């Protein structure tokens, strides 16, 4: 049986690489690809791209409960312009979708559990990932740099948030060794579609060990 997957993304972001056979030239093409291929055997829960600025908190809450309550994994598609810098984060969909994915929400006689959350980084218009992941920035240990400033705060706070983090012995950078690091891990699109089951299963393992992480659930 497939996993129940909800996908959070910026529908109109066109700063991503075009996908052959798809015509929107936006992040929506990647969602369509997932539905048609990678998530074909998984239950896909719908998304929205509406403007929250005129909504009341109760409307937002009910709308997101309807969409996310029955899912178990949330995939967040990271794209170069996913965040509108001219709007408050509380007026954008993605932070709220992540927040409700992380909360345990009671609805009628059923309480939803905290979702596992995976950040899938999409390639930019030139097919590169360096707007978010810069490889080999440390000359000593060859570790990379994650440019978390492009992310919403609720995403940033749930990365490198293990209660026990193992720092490397590198004298030149502040990197971490393998082990528990982030409740929301990230993976490049090309790697995700090559081995989707591995990354979804890993997300479930992290979710089931969620008490090992200091999880932030509120939109700031």
Automatic annotation (TrEMBL):
Q: Which Pfam families match?
A: ThsB_TIR
Query: Residue limits of the Thoeris protein ThsB TIR-like domain?
Result: 6-121
Protein name (database record): Thoeris protein ThsB TIR-like domain-containing protein
Question: Organism source for this protein?
Answer: Bathymodiolus thermophilus thioautotrophic gill symbiont
């Amino acid at each position: 049986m497939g996993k129940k997957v909800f996908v959070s993304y910026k529908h109109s972001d066109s700063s991503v690489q075009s996908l052959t056979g798809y015509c929107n030239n936006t992040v929506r093409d990647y969602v369509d690809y997932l539905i048609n291929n990678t998530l074909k055997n998984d239950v896909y829960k719908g998304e929205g791209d509406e403007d929250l600025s005129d909504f009341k908190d109760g409307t937002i809450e009910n709308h997101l409960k309807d969409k996310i309550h029955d899912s178990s994994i949330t995939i967040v598609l990271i794209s170069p312009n996913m965040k509108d810098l001219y709007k408050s984060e509380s007026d954008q969909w993605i932070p709220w979708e992540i927040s409700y994915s992380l909360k345990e929400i009671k609805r009628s006689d059923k309480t939803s559990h905290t979702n596992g959350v995976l950040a899938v980084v999409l390639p930019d218009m030139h097919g590169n990932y360096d707007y978010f992941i810069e490889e080999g920035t440390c000359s000593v240990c060859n570790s990379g740099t994650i440019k978390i400033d492009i992310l919403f705060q609720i995403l940033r706070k749930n990365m490198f948030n293990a209660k026990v983090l193992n720092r490397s012995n590198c004298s030149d950078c502040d990197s971490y060794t393998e082990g528990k690091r982030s409740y929301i891990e990230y993976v490049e699109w090309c790697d995700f579609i090559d081995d989707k089951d591995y990354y979804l299963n890993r997300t479930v393992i992290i979710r089931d060990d969620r008490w090992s992480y200091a999880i932030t659930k509120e939109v700031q």
